[in-house]
Amino acid sequence: MSVPGSTSSATALARLARIGRTPLATVPTPLHPAPALAAHLGTGVQISIKADDCTGLGLGGNKVRKLEYELDPARLHGVTHLVTAGGPHSNHCRVTAAAAARLGLGCTLVVNGEPEDPGRGNALLHRLLGARIVTVRDREDRDRAMEEEVRRIGAAGGKALAVPIGASTARGAFGYVHAVAEVRDQAGSDGEAPWIFTSSSSGGTLAGLILGCAIFDWRARLVAVSADEPAAWIRGTALRLAMAAAHRLEPDPGAPSGNPHGHGTSGPGAGLANRVRQVAEDAIVTDDLVGAGYGIATREGQEATRLFGTHTGVILDPVYTAKAAAAMIAWLREGRVPAGDNAVFLHTGGHPALFR
Ligand SMILES: *Cc1c(COP(=O)(O)O)cnc(C)c1O
Q1: Where does residue 236 rank: exposed (0-12), middle (13-18), buried (19+ CB within 10 A)?
Q2: Does the beta carbon of 96 lie inside 6 Å of ligand 1?
Q3: Which of 169, 199, 314, 323 to mutate to test the pocket of ligand 1 (most atoms within 8 A of CB)?
Q4: Looking at the DSSP assignment, which residues form a beta bridge with residue 184?
Q5: d(Cα 196, Cα 198) in Å, to the nearest integer?
Q6: What are the C-alpha distances in Å from 77 to residues 9, 73, 81?
Q7: Ligand 1 in contact with 62 (CB < 6 A)?
Q8: Over the stretch 315-349, which tens digit does the pLDDT of each residue have?
Q9: What is the pTM of this model?
């Protein structure tokens, strides 16, 4: 990871290097130029694709980087099981089950709703990865069922670590600081900072991108495209997570850190907190491409999937990346990204949804 000139950035990076992390991801992921797509769209914008669908573990995707920090070795001491929750086709559940398998731990997935066919898509992979599946009726039942599982495992003499849904926590956000560092190195330092288009749902990935840009004082323009949640909720959640993560990188432990909004924070860490707030404010968050709702394909997403397939060789998923790519394509067609700029599409994974 390259170290920029700013003292507080260097301090933040040194602190990040001391935060516990279990290596799980195949990184750096490649950044592939997509000149044929740019030519097809007739844009003077240089497009490239950051292949975080290739983070490796359990078919990869953005959850792997987040889990590396969620599964801090210090938190795994004595742990025998991981417990997490999600939908019956959750990418997060798949990667958590894969991490448990790799680490030699048991895994329970609390899943709301029955998959139409448990022999397909992520539902199949959850089972192939050896997870115990506990089905609950509603999303609202998941937290209680997770607590119950943790208790049950404890009563049987084990110890469970509950991984929050999506691994979208302040800790998980650190994972995407590394992705920012990689793109910064791969894009070359000579040009303007790029536009970065990403799919967004629980806000954890965006939080990490915000924190990374703040740490490096890098002026990438972040465009987060919702797969389901309202844009205002995503922005608020990402800001809250990024601020909480920034406070853990606070160089002065004596500085006030209890207030996640950081107003009035003084000392060397205040620079980072202020930059996080600025980057979050400058980020564009849109829910214009959600369509009829989570997991329901849109015409724009289908077109984007066809364009990526035929002009980049990259496969998108219908739930997340198709909608984010549709947003990027719309922006390029509308000339909202100036010619000569770079646009990076962050591929967050999700392929098993194609086969459900
Ligand atoms: C979870 C997920 C996202 C959304 O990431 P968040 O950090 O929850 O915002 C995007 N794409 C894919 C493929 C995912 O699995």
Answers
A1: middle
A2: no
A3: 199
A4: none
A5: 6
A6: 31, 7, 11
A7: yes
A8: 999 999 999 999 999 999 999 999 999 999 999 99
A9: 0.93
